[in-house]
């Protein structure tokens, strides 16, 4: 049986409503979570931590109020970690704009957007809750309105109960 090209870098791949989630572990910590398109097949966890991560990801897909409790590899600059902490404080069902977060931490919206795109732990650090002032914005360093990543962002926001709101000038739902 051959390994699906690209899947070898993951410690596990779990099916998701929008495709799949790749999980990478290293040194008893989660190293990275990755949104994967539907052509990626599930991959059995290679270790206990990856199994735990799979279980927690699936619990989130069942319950958007689920709180992750996984050890994360310490990554990112001090600025990125400040942005990620601010993102982590956004409650489920709410969103903030890049500008609102920038004002909160004393930075610029573009820098906040770049830190969002550098997030190693999507779902755990819910960068999908950060939008542009006039619409959905980008996601995971992608901004193709009809592309895979923005479809994931739409799904996550809908899953968490975010409905169309006044801060949107365009619909974020397909």
From TrEMBL:
Keywords: DNA damage. Residues 78-162 form the Methylated-DNA-[protein]-cysteine S-methyltransferase DNA binding domain. It comes from the Bacteria. PANTHER family: METHYLATED-DNA--PROTEIN-CYSTEINE METHYLTRANSFERASE (PTHR10815). This is Methylated-DNA--[protein]-cysteine S-methyltransferase.
């Amino acid at each position: 049986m051959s390994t699906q090209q690209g899947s070898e870098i993951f410690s596990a791949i779990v099916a998701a409503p929008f495709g799949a989630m790749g999980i990478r572990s290293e040194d008893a910590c989660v190293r990275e979570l990755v949104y994967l398109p539907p052509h990626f097949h599930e991959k059995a966890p290679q270790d206990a931590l990856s199994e735990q991560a799979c279980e927690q990801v699936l619990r989130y897909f069942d319950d958007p109020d689920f709180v992750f409790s996984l050890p994360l590899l310490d990554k990112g600059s001090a600025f990125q970690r400040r942005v990620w902490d601010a993102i982590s404080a956004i409650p489920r069902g709410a969103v903030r704009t890049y500008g609102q977060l920038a004002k909160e931490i004393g930075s610029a919206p573009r820098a906040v957007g770049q830190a969002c795109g550098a997030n190693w732990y999507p779902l755990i650090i819910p960068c999908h809750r950060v939008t542009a002032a006039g619409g959905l914005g980008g996601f995971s360093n992608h901004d193709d309105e009809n592309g895979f990543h923005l479809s994931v962002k739409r799904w996550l926001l809908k899953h968490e109960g975010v409905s169309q709101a006044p801060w949107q000038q365009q619909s974020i739902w397909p």
